[in-house]
Write a structure and sequence with these properties.
The chain is α+β, with helices and mostly antiparallel strands. The protein contains two helices and five strands.
Length: 113
């Protein structure tokens, strides 16, 4: 099967004459400018086998922009991480470092929790 196939949750055939496939247009979401982003930076160790990670929450915008911000933060901190459920996860305690970098990039509403 092709990996590019859309997720139809197992739909094979429909007898409903009014059935329409769900629209996959998510282009209507716009990314807020950095000064309007309400980012929250916090430390977390729950369900991570005792490992500490820094979570960045509250990003509003496209997934591609979130991935790009995550890539820049990981590169700046020199650590690994990922994006899950609209949260950026950075390995280790990098709250102060991330907060100062975000303020320099124009994310003035970013704050530590």
């Amino acid at each position: 099967m092709s990996k590019k196939r859309s997720n139809l949750s197992g739909l094979v055939y429909s007898t409903d004459p009014n059935f329409k496939l769900p629209d996959e247009n998510t282009d209507d979401i716009t990314t807020l400018p950095p000064a309007q982003q309400n980012l929250q930076i916090r430390l977390d160790a729950k369900q991570r086998a005792g490992k500490i990670v820094t979570l960045i929450q509250g990003f509003e915008g496209k997934d591609t922009d979130l991935q790009e911000l995550s890539r820049k933060l990981k590169s700046f901190c020199g650590t690994g991480g990922s994006v899950k459920e609209n949260e950026i996860i950075i390995q280790g305690d990098n709250r102060d470092k991330i907060l100062s970098w975000l303020h320099k990039q124009g994310f003035s509403k970013a704050k530590k929790i």
